[in-house]
Amino acid sequence: MKLNNNVTEFILLGLTQDPVRKKIVFIIFLLFYLGTLMGNLLIITIIKTSQALGSPMYFFLFYLSLSDTCFSTSIAPRMIVDTLAEQATITFSECMIQVFSAHFFGCLEIFILILMAVDHYVAIWKPLYYPTIVNCRVCGVLMAVAWVGSCMHSLAQIFLSLSLPYCGPNVVDHYFCDLEPLLQLACADTYVVNLLLVFNSGALCTVGFVLLMFNYVVILHSLRNHSTEGRRKALSTCISHIILVLLFFVRCIFIYTLPATTFPMDKMIGVVYMIGTPLFNPLIYTLRNAEVKNAMSKLWSKKLISDDVR
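Structure tokens predicted for Olfactory receptor 4C16:
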């Protein structure tokens, strides 16, 4: 594809240009990112080291935490560094890499959330056949499909980005590279690209959200036939998942179904989406999941025993 670009780098305006506020943003971003890394890496370690967490649910939770870590890392470190710079710049190539990685891991998270919902559905509606339907091989195949689907989605984003000429200006009114703010800098008609963006990202977010909500309505309806203890346990798990779904999809739908429209709160909502959601994921699953908390306690006890022996 022949590019007609005069722009070799972009200037990212970030959240604010005020020096004092930039320092505050730096501290907040750094704390959130460190919390995201520690929380998700803790879940990854617990699932890998605990034999009690070998069910498909924790198989998907492992990859959800891994996806959260990579998703946040694809954006947060540069955001943190940029808050200290007088003028934050990013090369055209780095910008395209950021677009690809953000959409790849964001899309992967959508697919994993859907797979976790399906796992919960089968566990509740087909408990006797659950080990046969959702076995290790099936989980592996589903995750492979999710990775391939995410790659195809991200390649579509890159294709849309590279299909536009950028002649200047090169100032991006955002804190990271995404297709929606880049469309505003293209020196060409972006109507068709906007439609394709809605069809690609917007439809993915909307359809995924509708499927997940429908799935959980069915699951919650089915809990009437369960025992009090079973209903309480299933309800706790489902509520945790629903909270994550709402946090993740609200911003996704808000931004990508109206890509041609810019609202003053877009960037602040984006912060919750890019930095907040990966942090909330381990907190919700750690605080509301008894099995994870038990595995965490055992891991901590082993560490204390190991330290005492030394």
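The first strand starts at residue 9 and ends at 12.
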